[in-house]
Design a protein that fits this description.
The protein is of the alpha+beta class and 400 residues long. The chain folds into 2 domains: 32-125 and 147-214, tricorn interacting facor f3 domain (Immunoglobulin-like), CATH 2.60.40.1730; 219-400, Orthogonal Bundle (Neutral Protease, domain 2), CATH 1.10.390.10. It contains 6 helices and 19 strands. It has helices spanning 2-20, 247-264, 295-298, 307-322, 338-356, 362-377, and strands at 33-44, 50-61, 68-71, 76-84, 87-89, 91-95, 100-105, 112-123, 131-137, 140-146, 168-175, 179-182, 186-191, 196-201, 214-217, 220-227, 232-238, 273-278, 290-294. An 8-stranded mixed beta sheet has the order 5-4-8-2-1-11-14-13, with no helix packed on it. It has a 4-stranded mixed beta sheet with strand order 16-17-18-19. Strands 3-7-6 form a 3-stranded antiparallel beta sheet, with no helix packed on it. The longest helix is centred in the first third of the chain and has 19 residues, at 2-20. The protein starts with a helix and ends in a 23-residue tail after the last helix.
Length: 400
Amino acid sequence: MRAPILGLVVALALAASVAAAPAPPTFRLPGDVAPKHYALDLTVDPGADTFRGEVTIDLDVRRATEVVWLNATDLKIGDATLVVGDKPVPVKVVPGGDDFVGFAPAVPLAPGPARLTIRYDGGVDSVRSRGIYRVAEGADWYVYTFFESTSARRAFPCFDEPSYKVPWKLTLRAPAGLVVAANTAPTDARDTPDGLRAVTFADTPPLPSYLVAFVVGPFDVVDGGTAGNHGTPLRFIVPRGRAAELAWAKQATPRLVGKLEDYMGMAYPYGKLDVAVVPRYWGTMEHPGIVALGQPISLIKPGEESLQRKQFYATIAVHELAHYWFGDYVTCAWWNDTWLNEALGSWMDGKMTDAFEPTWLMPLERLLHIHNAMGEDALASTQKIRLPVDSARSPPPSRT
């Protein structure tokens, strides 16, 4: 009878171990730990469908906790180190399902500062514009990012909620000869022994994870002079050989920024402005310092600059640029208020486009939009403007 008893003891011990395993969050992060600063080091090759990463997060432990929970999706965690004060603390990786990963120290963390470093691998999406994704044009591959609303966690373990708004320092390692650009200007570039070029960028202003952005590839970089009223450096980053299609964007963008500065009574707040021309309309996004605008919006072949194409670029570009003041500089604490962010953008795109070119008679077009909106609002099937976002199945934030 000894063997069955031994088997029962082992089974009970395993059951107790499983029962004692920390349960991951069900939707939101618990809030007992918050980031203060990220240092993100990524190795990205547009020709590969995987990437490597290391992220160091300075933490503020607000309440004693046994596990530091972060968001992470489809990332392979290699190892992690935790430092409290100047002492390393052993830490165990705790699986957390599709959207979370936990890091359990040998002893519970007391309130105060700590630093967590995580090494990991991830995949580059070749199908959808989400997370770190890549697109081929001719024989070339280009890498872009799109993190709103919950795809930053596909690129790095993080606190992937908009209220966690802190500075980021980014280092990108890519094959030598490729263009790399991100939210801020580079501060250092060096060749590495493995044949890569490592570019380190200045710390960002406080940003939520969904507004971090970068591009890597054999781009053409086109000088756009300055934008607005305060000498903001302006560049356009386009796939190789397509610079000739930027004539209208180069003409319109500096004035659009100036009109927004005039109306807001505040200078463009992010130091430099790169216009990264991304492959698809979906992918357009108001990243601070590196706005993403889709090729169907931004690139117009010489001789095809119709009035409609010019209006399309001006209206969409000024909508995204307006988000630098509300959405980026001031950010909604949670996704149920995205309607306000997008409503202000939609209101501003008509108002600023009219200021940009009064002969287009944009107020008349706005009357048509108002008529259509009131018709939609009269339908019984029309959903509320402000909806709760309290589960993964909640309606996604509206994008315009």
